[in-house]
Amino acid sequence: MGIDYRSLGLRVGLEVHRQLSTKSKLFCECPVEPSGSGREVTFVRELRPAQSELGEIDPATLFESQRARKFVYKGNTSDICLVEMDEEPPHPINEEAVEVALTVALLLNSEPVDELHVMRKVVIDGSNTSGFQRTCIVATGGSIRVGDRDIPIQAISLEEDSARIVETRAGEVVYDLQRLGIPLIEVSTAPEISTPEEAMKVAKSIGDLMRATGKVRRGIGSVRQDLNISIVGNCLVEVKGVQELELMPSIIDYEVRRMSMMRELSSLLRERGVTKDAIIMNDPVDLTDAFSNTGSRLVKTRLLSGDRVVGLRLPHLAGLLKSPDGGPIRLGREVAEYVRAWTGVEGVIHSDEVPGYGISQREVEEVRGLLNSSKDDAFVLVMGDAERARAALQRVRERLIGVIQGVIDETRAPLQDGTTQYARPRPSAARLYPETDIPPLVISREYLMGVRARLPRRFEEVIEELRSRYNLSGQLVAQLIDEDRVNEFEELVKLGIAPSFAASFLTEVLKELKRDGLDVDSVPFDEFLDFFRMVVNGETAKEAARDVVAYLARNRGSSAREAVVKLGYRAPRIEEVIAVIDALIDEYSRSGHRDVTGPVMGELMKRYRGKVDGAVLSRLVRERTK
Amino acid sequence: MVLVVILTMSEVEVAGYRGRLAEVLRRENVEVGDEVEVILPDGRRFAGRLMAKYENSPPDFISLKIRSGYNVGVHLPEGSRVIKLREGTAPAFRRPPPPVQDPSLPHVTIISTGGTIASRIDYGTGAVKPALSSEDLVSLIPEITDVAHINAEILFSIFSEDMTPEMWDTIAAKVNGLIKNGVDGVVITHGTDTMHYTAAALSFVLQNPPVPVVLVGAQRSSDRPSSDAATNLIAAVSIGARAPFGEVVLSMHEGHGDDLIVVHRGTRVKKMHTSSRDAFRSVNSAPLAYYRGGELILVERGLNPRGSDRYSFYPGFSDEAVLIKFFPPMKPDILEHYASKGVRGIIIEGTGLGHVSSSWIPTLRRIIRDGIFVGMTSQCVYGRVNMNVYSNGRRLLSIGVTPLDDMISEVALVKLMWVLRRASELDEVKGLMIRRIAGEMNDRSLPTRVSWIGD
After folding, report:
1. Contact residues, chain B, for A50 at CB < 8 Å
2. Mean predicted confidence (pLDDT) in B117-145
3. Residue range A177-189: mean pLDDT, rounded
4. What mean pLDDT comes out for the span A2-13?
5. Is there a domain that residue A427 lies in?
6. Can you spell out the DSSP letters for B176-218?
7. Chain A residue with minimum CA distance to B32
8. Do B257 and A45 touch (CB under 8 A)?
9. Do the chains contact at B126 and A436, CB–CB below 8 Å?
10. For B121, which residue in chain A has the nearest alpha carbon?
């Protein structure tokens, strides 16, 4: 079922974050690549909300602060220092990272700021030991061409990466500090992307452009995208931390459908006369007694652990909490996600799904009676200690009021199935205040001229150049660049290996071997070079490449020469080959073949595959048949 | 007339901006927080709210907060225009409503003297500045009212490196007054840089107090979510309200985590790290106690009990004492210099067991003969001086240098300032300096690497 995104007024803005592979972190001299070779340190901290310089507290910060939690931090002294531990003020900003960010800015025709001011973005979920993320705008404006459109760029910033969650326990979150402080470049576009597919293409183009600097980190978690999604008449939803590009279109599609449905629900609720006041007027009721003889194992277990069942009447909401089409989008899920995020209470049961969960029709009737709820009404049940259950129901009300008023601004998290879930309210500008430990950095005109002079070629330029010089397919070139093998490719070609063979060896052959579970990355490139040198010298054939690499991967520390010999790919002496060719020509001519080239080549390839280059054999056969 | 005009021109200052920029802003009647548009001669435009100037930013840059909340610096060359779009609100700290207090709880007074614990970012200079009052602290850290009924007052608002002996006396007099009025505990918030000097000073003035006097600070300013101010203050107030002893103590983080607070004796503590939360260490002594999970764990026995009737108040410090750190080629001229300035006592932070170069001996002999007290401590920090082991030490002893045992050199200085106010003769000074007065010395040396509490 296709959606007409344009008629819905879909507008998407992207924030592409990419880790840099600079020598050190953004605000200290710790390495970006971990070694884990030092001593482990562990410590426990708490965080409290702080006001911005305008005296305001950010809503996202309040959200986190009312979930009082402890944070356990772990790190290794080889990879973290007192700066990551928030025990030492930050060192001056890493100028290598600033230059990479300026490089990206110039490639996007952005306007660098005159003076860089590092800010503190308050984040008190524990992911930053300081309670804020250090970030600064490096440039504003510019654009990126994708297809036939120029997507405007809003800003390019440089920020420190956060710590990685290792484990979430009751009232406690464990973080690994290694990632904290790795420089991240963030490129944010204007909300002018109009289809899910286009969003993916823009993200890919921005990613490629960042890669052209040669200073970005690769691998899992090195790229993260945030999506700002809105449709006409709704507020803004931010989906944070999408790692796979391929997931992006389905996430946007899901959000569009979800927002449309919320919009429909909103008008439906108003039609039915459900108002904010009507929702507030109903108070939570303790229904534990109605379940004293319950057959529901779910409810019974919770009651045995001392929990209460508390319910709330939702006037005129009958039938609206379940999914209208059996799909994943439903008001019940919206409410449950919201309650879980704010209170940690799991499992909101609503009237559209009972009888169910072992809850009987009679119990449903009794609940309706106690809640004074008619058939037109819906109700929700939550279980927990009395205080938490009531807090959860307060959040149910809050969410429904939000829906009545239209989709609310919020931050959502992507899920692996291409859907999203509520994460927290959207932060405001109130969470940014100046990082006074770092003096502002003036970006002088002279310095910028230097950066401009050192600008790398754009990705498309590199592709075009390699493609035309070596007569390769664009796809093969893109793969070489993707896997950072352009330099290796050029070395093989310089030896005299055919460009198409060299390219497909470095991309497809190695990828296949990797897929088979072989650690080909551990084989030094010098061994590949030795092998191809033997090919060029006629000592073995290029067809042996796959087996030789496999052998080298399995037998660490062995040499290419050894592999060729052990595998029996050593070429025989040329006189011997010629003798064999002559004998075969003789044999096939005698048996009446008019053109002996084909069958002779067939026999030769059988005998010499991987030992003598096919092209060499073919040349010899031509010579001897003359 | 012309001169007058120039003077007024240079005096114009708008939000920290001076000269040409201040003129431009004043002409447009722009103040901090106002929404402005800046048009540069090259046609570039920036819109945002005017922020106060960063202290160390070059003169022709202005700081704008753009819509996303980020600040950026914009270079305004001659010919730039600033247009005021809308009036804004100037940044101000808004205090959350104070918590309701329970008068039946122990009464603790928090005296604020400044420092990181009571500081927030100064958007005028871009640096951290003491700005939070004690009342602000109560509002921001309401948990302290769970353990005590809090009174709070500001005595000073200074960085601790600006502290003076007169101020030590002012603080001591304040605490003495509170004790006389029956307070159950006193907490003094203080900048950490010289907090151990003040702790030592109060220890000599407020001897055997009937209630705990707790100095506390923070290594991370209280405007940041990760500040140690809250955990430190909560612990300090709990100690003030409930500890079974009457001692002058200093309590701060024991380690990198927020889960363990250590209580040091006022005369046995030194700042040993420039930035880390666990900067303060007890030197040549076990700490008195630890505070963890709301509980006080006593380490030291035989403390002055709460409610003790042995309390005495001995205020007053002399400023005629100095502390000198000896280094290998250092010449003794510094001694002559101080002697000529009327200094009456010198603490030397010598090498190892308590030595200075033998070239110092003639000068030392002369100034001691002139009645100047010279006391020896060690720059090793840990351990006790012993001047009998090497001949140089024995010669220093023979000319009248006084070994000060295992006293911390800063504490020895503070003690000397206090002693010089109450003794005039060299022998008298000497006698007081080697007498144990406030737990500042001990005859027994304990191993340094000991875990004083288990897990």
Report:
1. 222-225, 227
2. 65
3. 97
4. 89
5. no
6. HHHHHTT-SEEEEE--STTHHHHHHHHHHHEES-SS-EEEE--
7. A54
8. yes
9. yes
10. A436
> Which helix (H) or strand (E) covers residue A349, if one does?
strand A349-350
Does A445 map to a domain?
A: no
Q: Which residues of A touch B220 (CB under 8 A)?
A: 86, 130
Query: Which parts of A77-148 are beta strand (E)?
Result: 111-112, 115-116, 119-122, 132-140, 143-146
Q: Tell me the fold of B321-433.
A: Rossmann fold (3.40.50)
Distance from CA of A102 to the nearest CA of B (A): 15
Cβ B226 vs Cβ B189: under 8 Å: no
pLDDT at A130: 95
The ipTM assigned to this model is 0.89
Chain A residues near residue B223 by CB distance under 8 angstroms:
50-51, 433
Judge if B2-86 and B321-433 fold alike in CATH terms: no
Domain identity same for A220 and A336: no
> CA of B301 to nearest chain A CA: how many angstroms apart?
29
Least confident interval from A234-238, A405-409, A565-569, B58-62:
A405-409
Supply A143's token pair: 């654009």
Q: What is the domain count for chain A?
A: 4
Q: Measured between CB atoms, does A115 come within 8 Å of chain B? A: yes
Contact A115 B223 (CB under 8 A): no
B423 min Cα distance to partner chain A (Å): 44
Contacts of A431 in chain B (CB under 8 A): 69
Q: Are residues A382 and A276 in the same domain?
A: yes
Whether the predicted pLDDT of A624 surpasses 80 = yes
- CB–CB contact B231 A46 (8 Å): yes
Region of poorest pLDDT, from A300-304, A556-560, B12-16, B320-324: B12-16
Q: Determine whether the interchain pair A51/B223 forms a contact, defined as Cβ–Cβ distance below 8 Å.
A: yes
B1 has a pLDDT exceeding 50: no
Residue B18 near residue B59 (C-beta atoms within 8 A): yes
Domain that holds residue A470: 459-566
Active site residues of B: 116, 192-193, 271
Amino acid in position A506? L
Closest CA to B115 of B168, B175, B189: B189
Superfamily of domain B107-313: L-asparaginase, N-terminal domain (3.40.50.1170)
Q: Are strands B213-216 and B248-253 parallel, antiparallel or unpaired?
A: parallel
Say if CB B84 and CB B36 are below 8 A apart: yes
Look at A131 and B226 and tell me if their CB atoms are within 8 Å.
Answer: yes
Q: Which H or E run includes A362?
A: helix A361-371
Q: How confident is the model at residue B124, as a pLDDT?
A: 46
Taken in order B181, B187, B191, B192, the sign of the CA dihedral is positive
Q: Is A294 on the interface with B (CB under 8 A)?
A: no
Whether A27 contacts chain B with CB within 8 A: no
- HSE, side-chain direction, 13 A CA sphere, residue A516: 15
Please give, rounded to a whole number of angstroms, the shortest distance from the CA of A57 to a CA of chain B.
10
CATH of span B2-86: 2.30.30.520
Contact flag B57-A115 (C-beta cutoff 8 Å):
yes
* A484-523: burial string, b at 16+ Cβ within 10 Å, e else: ebeebbebbbeeebebebbbbbbbebbeebeeeebebeeb
Are residues A204 and A230 both part of a single domain?
yes
Same domain flag for A23 and A138? yes
Ranges assigned E (strand) in A77-171? 111-112, 115-116, 119-122, 132-140, 143-146, 149-160, 164-169
* Helix (H) or strand (E) run with residue A624 in it: helix A614-625
